[in-house]
Amino acid sequence: xxxxxxxxxxxxxxxxxxxxxxxxxxxxxxxxxxxxxxxxxxxxxxxxxxxxxxxxxxxxxxxxxxxxxxxxxxxxxxxxxxxxxxxxxxxxxxxxxxxxxxxxxxxxxxxxxxxxxxxxxxxxxxxxxxxxxxxxxxxxxxxxxxxxxxxxxxxxxxxxxxxxxxxxxxxxxxxxxxxxxxxxxxxxxxxxxxxxxxxxxxxxxxxxxxxxxxxxxxxxxxxxxxxxxxxxxxxxxxxxxxxxxxxxxxxxxxxxxxxxxxxxxxxxxxxxxxxxxxxxxxxxxxxxxxxxxxxx
Length: 296
What we know:
Layout: H1 3-23, H2 32-56, E1 62-64, E2 67-69, H3 74-105, H4 113-138, E3 160-161, H5 163-188, H6 197-232, E4 237-238, H7 239-242, H8 245-263, H9 266-270, E5 288-290, E6 293-295
Antiparallel strand pairs: 1-2, 3-4, 5-6
């Protein structure tokens, strides 16, 4: 890929990142995923400014932490950050999923918002640090820095990422299994002899799954179609663009849906004993009928 096209992609990614950070500023310190989103926007901005500076001063060099960087380091920076972004996909999913699970079940919650923000900040920094160590010391990543002709000097080898499709497929399959399990439970207890507590609990769980799926699909149906097109078409996603805040917003809603379908806190939600993690795209409102009494 040519360096100007890489700069254009990084610039557009930065604008989208900061626009989404601004739109969701009320949720920034309320969960791990939003704290990580701000850190990603900062790292993307630093990468874009560094690559732009090196590309503009093509015949000179720039100093970064005492190192002399030239235009030959542009490709190196893009490849390294792209590899770090790819390696971060699964750890972010795991940590964000645990954070959402603890939020829904009201477990391990800090007593104050400041304490929660500090915990999320420490986990975010630790995650970046461990991922960088993995890429440099443990992975088999080898940058492609071969000699090229003069006409190709403004082009870079760019790695592509498959982690986005892997994460999406895994979570969607998990979601499908949860929905199938809820449907089987409903059919098993379709005509119970007595409307006892167990039957009421099953109907409450089924209602949570159906409503959560309905809310999620109403919001992200077009994005799911886009992912399906990426899966069917032989189109690669550049690694330096793979991890972005738009993807994290979709991931946030998908993880909330998976956790709600797995935990099924119908009675807890109705009584205010469970909380839904912050989400700027999906409006998580549930309606229940427990003990012949409608509650919202």
